[in-house]
Design goal:
Elements lengths: L2 H11 L5 E6 L2 E5 L12 E6 L2 E5 L3 H9 L8 H9 L1
Length: 86
């Protein structure tokens, strides 16, 4: 799929202020205006995996959260349920 097509469709469905850059075969970095409170941008990757397109942050958000809260808190309550769902 052409990066221009992916970018056009993504902008239409998500946000006009984004940019997509190829990082290899079927792997694209998605740049958006979205960021954490400290100014770090969200890390978003679009990649082809098992015959489908997947959005991932490749663990970046979890790493970012562990800098702000005790890692043990990530494995309690709803966070625990979400981590098991992966």
């Amino acid at each position: 799929m052409a990066v221009e097509t992916i970018e056009r469709d993504f902008k239409h469905k998500v946000c006009e202020e984004l940019r997509v850059a190829s990082e290899g075969i079927n792997r694209y970095r998605v740049f958006t205006p979205f960021m954490f409170n400290d100014g770090d941008h969200l890390s978003i990757l679009l990649k082809r995996q098992n015959q489908q397109w997947v959005l991932s942050d490749e663990g970046h958000t979890l790493m970012h959260l562990t800098c702000q809260i005790d890692e043990k808190e990530l494995y309690r309550g709803n966070r625990q349920k979400l981590s098991r769902a992966r």
